[in-house]
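Handout, section 4.2: multi-component inputs.
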Amino acid sequence: APQPASDGGATGHRGAQGADVPVGELTFALPSSVSSLDVGRESGVLNYLVATLAQESLVSVSPAGKLEPGLATAWRQPDATTYVFTLRRGVVFTDGSPFTAADVVASIDEIRDPKNGSALAYAFAGVSSVKATGSHEVTIRLSAPDAAFIWNTSPGGLLISSEKFLAANRGKVGTEKTLLLGTGAYRITEFAADSHVRLESNPHWWGARPALRKLKLSFVPDAGTRLVAMKSGAVDGALGLAADETSGWASAADVTYTGDRSVVALAFDTAKAPWNDPHVRRAVAHAADREGMVKGILHGRAEVADALVAPEMWGDLLPAGQVRAGYAKITSYGFDLAAARAELAKSAHADGFTAELHYPSSGPQLGKAALALADSLKKIGITLRVKEITLEAWVAELGTGKQPLQFLWYFPVTGDPAELADPYLNASATATDIAHYDVTAVNKALDSAKADTDKARRAGKLMTAVRTAGDDLPYLPLWWGQTATALSKDIVLQQPGPFAFVGPWATRIRKAA
Amino acid sequence: MNRGPLPLRYVLTRVGGTLVLLFVLSVAVFALLRIAPGDPARTLLGQRGATPQALAAVRARYHLDSPFAAQYLHWLGGVLHLDLGTSIRTGAPVSATIGGRLALTGQLVGLGLAVALLLGIPGGILTALRRYRATDRAVQTAGLVALSTPAFAGGLVLIYLFSLMLRWFPAYGPGQGGGDRLHHLVLPAVTLALSVTAVLLKLTRAAVIRELAKEHVVFARARGVPERRILVDYVLRGALVPVLTGVGLVVAYLLAGTVLVEQVFALPGLGSLLVESVTYRDVPLVQAEALFIATLVVLAGLVTDLAQPLIDPRLRPARTGKGNAR
Amino acid sequence: MTDHPTAAGPADRTGTTARRPRPRIRPLTAAGAAVAVLLLAAAAFGQSLLPGWDAQDIAAGARMPGGGHLLGTDALGRDIAEMTIAGARSTLTGAALVALGSMLIGNVLGLLAGYLGGWTDMLVRRWADLLLAVPALLVTLVVAGIGGGGYALAVCALMVLTSPSDIRLVRTAVREQRHLPYVEAAETLGLPRRTVMLRHIWPNTLPVAVANTLLNFAGSVVALSSLSFLGLGVPPGAPDWGRMLAENRDLLYTNPSAALAPAVLIVLSAVVLNHLGDRVLEVFSKRGNA
Amino acid sequence: MTTSTPTAEPGPGAGTPTASLLDVDGLRIAATAGARHSIVDGVSFAVAPGECVGVVGESGSGKSLAVRAVTGLLPDGVTVTGGTVSLGGQDVLGLGPRARGALRGRRVALLMQDPFTMLHPQLTCGRQIADGLREEEHPRRGRAARAARRAEVVRRLAEVGLPAEIADRYPHELSGGMLQRAATAAALAADPDLLIADEPTTALDSANQAAVLALLGRLRHERAMGLVLITHDLRVAFSSCDRIYVLYAGSVLEHGPAGDVQAAPQHPYTAALLASEPSVFRRKDPLPSIPGSVPPPGSRGAGCPFAVRCAHVAAECRTAPLTLAAPPAGAPGADRRRTACARIGALTALPGAAGEDTGDAGPRQAREERTAGAPHAGPRRSDAALVVEGVGRRFGTGADAGHQALSDVSLTVPAGEITALVGRSGSGKTTLARIAIGLETFDSGTVRSGPVELRAGGRPGPADRRRLAAHTQIVFQDPYASLSPLRTVGATLREALAAARRNGLAVDGDRDQAVLALLDQVGLPAHYADRRPAALSGGERQRVAVARALAARPRLLICDEAVAALDVSVQAQILGLLAELRRSQNFAVLFITHDLAVVRQIADRVAVLSRGRVVEEGTTAEVLDHPRHEETRRLLAAVPEREVAD
Ligand SMILES: Nc1ncnc2c1ncn2[C@@H]1O[C@H](COP(=O)(O)OP(=O)(O)OP(=O)(O)O)[C@@H](O)[C@H]1O
Ligand SMILES: Nc1ncnc2c1ncn2[C@@H]1O[C@H](COP(=O)(O)OP(=O)(O)OP(=O)(O)O)[C@@H](O)[C@H]1O
Ligand SMILES: [Mg+2]
Ligand SMILES: [Mg+2]
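Output:
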């Protein structure tokens, strides 16, 4: 299995060792509110942190990003469009009912039902049928080959509940009264929307009993309050901290930074002036002081991005070394205002122009980056107006194509480069290709990679697509993000990696040795 | 004191006026949410899942694409049956969601109001009695600073002092159970009360000073009515109506303050619910909550209005015309 | 003290020709006025006197005080001291706009309602009641939040929502003046009603309106910075105390001055404005011609 | 400035009763806020049990402050700076606030001017009377005690002539006269030895005035209580007090037995005051007045404060310290009197109220002269300045019963004549005046104000308002609110002139010149054009108000109680001014007043209004000398004047 790249991986103070003794109850702060536990309903990043403790998927993802057995002990792919999962036996839901194939089918059908408007619907959009082909066997057929599909059966795309439960509680799942039902390592015992969730370990879980018996996740949206809570000992740790927030935390906690595979990029609409002019895009790329942004705005807690796809996203497709080598060949546009001016002079907009860039209020670091960019663009004659809008408005704006210059801010849920490459670089993905990037070679490479079951060949095709796009600059990748986990000095989180929070992360909490 | 019954006409006019006010407000809120740009369906589906079919399904489910009047009537019909719809974001019934938050915010506002009343009114009386002296100036200055400090900044300072330095009170969260809840709500309530206390202080001080200067107070002194009785029965009674009106008005301040205070202290109350619902454009929730808050404020106003004739006989209908001296 | 008689009978004879002593200017008030002038000067000239206030040094990032930066720098490497001075403009302008706009609305509607009475009065009063029934900050939050977070929208919403206090105040003041002999004398001179309203009544209601405007100004500084704290308010990058406070809050435990400087100025300007407003009211109510 | 020396004080031998209830000696009061200046400069007076002492003097002379100092209730911003006050032999100035508070109610109580503000609006009258009862005699706790208190309250109400049910009434449910009685009962609740009544009747109409004065007199006798009556109304003081102190600008200028002082004043100020008081029985032609006005505190020179206005002033008056000395023997009651006039020896008998003054031709002759030109049959309608016919006005609509302020009122104001409108408070005088000038609507009847026909039920339109403005102008009662506080006198007058020009008056010459001419007409110096109202005295303000009205060269001037708020000296000035202007400009005047003496002094005709109806109308002489209607007789009877002339 590929190890996380050294600079994208954990940079904690101590090794992830811990004593194997039971831990009573811990409280962790989460940085914003959760008002529904159902990830299909409220598709925030934080819901996953909670839901993956209580619910499982067919396959699981190791902290390093490797696909491993989950509720399916094995899976095979008889042909390019068929997946057969053999389910684990003897598993029970936390309400005591046994886990069977019908539950899997019901869970997937729930997501696919357009009436439910599930946020996960995209993951099963290419599925033509889901059938229980035995009491403990499920067969999924796709309408077209999709080599990355297996990732959609990991917690990022599917969390399984019981058929009976789903039928009885349609539309109410994840609320205070109707908690999540799953087979996971923990059982949710209490949920107060926008306040906290309580969980306790599930004695009937099929895995090893976790050391941490009970935990409480508190939602503390205010950064200052969060820090005071840590300093005053009201919480034992905090998850999902923004990189720029952690400066005050060092004295109170151990802070671990891990690449979270997320990417922040600028998307140029290549179908619209002035962004259809590659010189303009290059001028902007040269004017973006990405090193400075990472250093200044993110306090060094991020990595300057060479491409849209973070290196960890290649998972077990391609060894880290080869990913880096491939990325190294992408034309790099270093910070160079003179070069930027020269590019702009070559363009059809030599006298400069005015553009607008919106960022979501939940991403202040994006705003700061935009301001930094505006500052240097001003020097080459481009006026960039920066505007803050709500996350809601920003999300709504993304697909509409009204803004020719946009931020792309993406948190992947899988460990496959296609998750980003397919929607954003393939011209056939009309809803998501916000750059309207349409290069035949790239389209072809992506299409054939989709059907290719050979890992190496597929990796090659994807790399071609990513590299070509890197040179063409429909997106200017700014940085690959990191997330910070702060834990009090007497506990540790084993194996903190870029995929640490895709699975039941709390099972890896230990008392510090 | 024998209290005549409340004038019926007065009560009816006030209650009728309140109902009209609420109706206009509900239309306004409803219109506002429809006019505003953005699309809750998209937010709901997130970045990845916004396929046209899914969008259409969501819109149909929440009646997002029917005409305005139809939407409003549908909603109003629901409201009259005590059905406020379901939250787009959580799928839970709006009434239950609001109901679930009500207790905490109610306690917060109640405690805040209690703090404000207990500090502001006696403070106002004290400063009025000691007017233009050192105590008065000191208290007034403190009030001025309290009034001028944004709630979130005040909250941060209090957290820093009392949670981090002195460790007297917890920094965040609602706590569990009566005593613990109270312990958790002390700092938020004080934060919430800061500016309102200052407002009540100012108001009470002005009202008491105005009353103290009244002829009837001088006359009461001049005929030997004991000082204490003058203060309680004459001065304070006279100041009651303006202070009461002020208390009715500060309810609005308090409710507005909860937004910031709940944010700072991570309290899951109506204020933070509103912020979240606004961010996600959870139309049914925002609508119901806005209306709910407006109703509270309007009711507070109504109560103070109706209380006035009870306190002030001049506002009651005269039993007989002015008699003539005989 | 009022100078006009009670409804009942001949004038109160205690109002005499003696001119009451002019209210002394207290040292505190003088200091307040000086601070207000300084703040206004910073708002007016700060940005031109400090041409480099928005110079970024992004690679250097947030620095501690020292090295030519009195209060350190923010995440974009901008000097916090200079930003704070430059920030007076947007904070105070926004709040002043709210206060003045509300004063304008309040004076126009209050004057019309108070002078004309009848239907106009009824409508204006209902309108004020309606606005009073909604907590201003909440509505601004909803309007600005849902309407797309525009600063202009927030200022306008706050302006409209602040106006009922002005409307009521001016209306009451006008109604107090409305039937005073000097107004009726102007009417019996055959002066047009507009003239009576604008030249006779209005100037006499002005002191209360001015005092209230100062108080509203102070309130708006606080309200706008609260909105900035919630992420609604001035556009990003603009120097604004509320925004700076919100943005630099995470520096609180490393470089407290980054967050404290704007916070202190918010509180200071609100205190000064509140104090001046109170004083104006006090002085004019003592003079008895408010 | 002076202190009255102890030797000049009325000693025991000087006829004052020995067991003094109140002894004020050399009391000084000064303002402490802002510039420190003296307000009361060493005032001494004494009150014996059962005695009624009157303190008279023009507005601002320090009457109220002096007695408030006695009760320890000085307002903020003024303090006692010297002298002694002893109540029943006990020096009270040295006592702490608590001890002084304990004296109030029992030793001394204060009754104030305005019955409408003196009682707490939210407490019943009974409750407020009970609050003052002595606690040891009427305990508050216990059922029986409460019933006893209630009975006591009823008894107290009966004492002031009010029925028991008043105990449960709130002040706003009572009339002014009833309120003043209730307040009196409250003031007497703790049975004080001394009652100080500070202008107790000023806010009442003459009928109520007389009743309240009678009540106070009766109570004083029944209770053998000392009574200090503060008033600016000389008639009131002389008719009901035993002794009189004349206060002027913070000093006592004269004191002595009421009858003696009235008959033979020993100070020119007293004499001038008495002279300028109009009489209800005869017209004084001209009515003497005192020039100028009371100097405000802080601008008083050395010597006699009255020197600047005194007709008999000599050099010594401006320098000699003020001392109270006995008048020369021979003056009535000389042994019991003191005067502060330094020239008392030099001045021969000053005219008193009894003395027939300057060139008065006698009442009947004057009357005949005046009425000779006017036909007895009544005024001619054709050239009348104002014709009111069958006018009715009802206030209040809908549910509450409403109040018929005017019913079927007809009145004619002939051109060039002064018509007085009299009636008790609330009779509808002001309402009628406001209707005549278009400030108030009316329900029925017709009103013709010169060329303008006003219609019932609506306000005049802009054109009518202008024509009305050119014909009719008004002077209001309250000089303090009559002028826009922010505008200078000049600006006010310029605006009036501009309005007059717009309304069709041909004003020739320069506007500033016209302003000066107006000021000159009302007897104000030119430099007053730059002053703001705050810098003017009440009389001066009223002159400006007259000047503003004159700017339009009206044919009808309505004066609504235009002199009611002024001191007699100033009232005389304004009355003289009006009479003279009427002569020179020949406009008609509708003169509203409740003071029959003023009517006698100025009016050609008089109409009596009672409860919204005109009950009597005729020439002044007819109506005042041979009243036909009950109401007129009652009004006349209420005038507190001893008929000295007839
Ligand atoms: N609180 C005060 N502070 C300063 N000066 C005052 C105050 N109260 C009264 N004065 C001044 O003291 C003087 C005397 O006032 P006072 O009220 O005793 O007069 P008065 O003789 O009772 O007059 P009036 O007939 O008008 O009641 C006036 O010139 C007045 O302006
Ligand atoms: N605007 C009004 N609304 C209701 N009632 C009114 C109004 N104006 C006057 N009245 C009533 O009409 C009656 C006549 O009042 P008006 O003022 O004309 O009396 P007045 O003779 O001028 O009395 P005063 O001597 O007290 O000035 C009074 O009972 C008064 O209460
Ligand atoms: Mg007085
Ligand atoms: Mg009147």
